[in-house]
Amino acid sequence: MSTIKLTAVLAIAGFALSTSAFAQDAATATPETEADAATTAPEVKADAETLATAEKINTPSVEGIVTDEASCTYEGGSVEVLQDGTACFIQIRGEEASTQIYDGMGMGVIRCADNGEFTNEISSFNDSYCYVYLTEKVAPKTREELERELELATQRELESAN
């Protein structure tokens, strides 16, 4: 029995010593250290890429405008040859996406107007697409011109048959 008592006394003494050492560490902590630890915010360091992205979010777009075939495909449009000229069929990304962060993402033009030097037309497809003409728009032929072409084609065909 005495061994059990001796073991119990040694265990209690060891616990008491370790507890007093912990209490001593807490007592020696200065208020300045605790205050500094509570009020000092962690330092935030942004890398160059993060800073560049933040700058693009706040800077107006220098792109989002179509003037030729290359800029059409760069902004996500498709070049189409129509009866009245060559046009870029492209989505209108709108003013809410008019900063540099959206440039080159294939989201389209900022607005349908002010693209290139030729006329632009909003598509009838729910007003969110635009035809930006890359060439001068050709006026449709008049009835008289079409009739004259048909008459000439008919004469050539009749002459070649004889």
**Structural class by SSE content:** alpha+beta
Biggest sheet layout? 4 strands, antiparallel
Please tell me the overall pLDDT: 74
**What is the number of helices?**
5
Give the overall shape, derived from the CA principal axes.
elongated
- Which strand-content bin applies to the residues? 5-15%
Rg over C-alpha atoms, rounded to the nearest angstrom:
39 Å
Unreliable stretches (pLDDT < 50, length at least 5) are none
Estimated helix fraction: 40-55%
Cα end-to-end separation: 137 Å
In sequence order, what are the helices and strands, one letter per element?
A: HHHHEEEEH
Number of strands: 4
Order of strands across the main sheet: 1-2-4-3
Structural summary, described in words:
By secondary structure, the protein is α+β, with helices and mostly antiparallel strands. Helix content is 44%, strand content 12%. It has 5 helices and 4 strands. The chain has helices spanning 2-28, 31-39, 48-58, 69-74, 143-161, and strands spanning 78-82, 85-91, 120-122, 129-133. The protein has a 4-stranded antiparallel sheet. The longest helix has 27 residues, at 2-28. The protein is elongated and about 135 Å long. The N and C termini lie far apart (137 Å). The model has no long low-confidence stretch (mean pLDDT 74).
Topology:
Layout: H1 2-28, H2 31-39, H3 48-58, H4 69-74, E1 78-82, E2 85-91, E3 120-122, E4 129-133, H5 143-161
Antiparallel strand pairs: 1-2, 2-4, 3-4
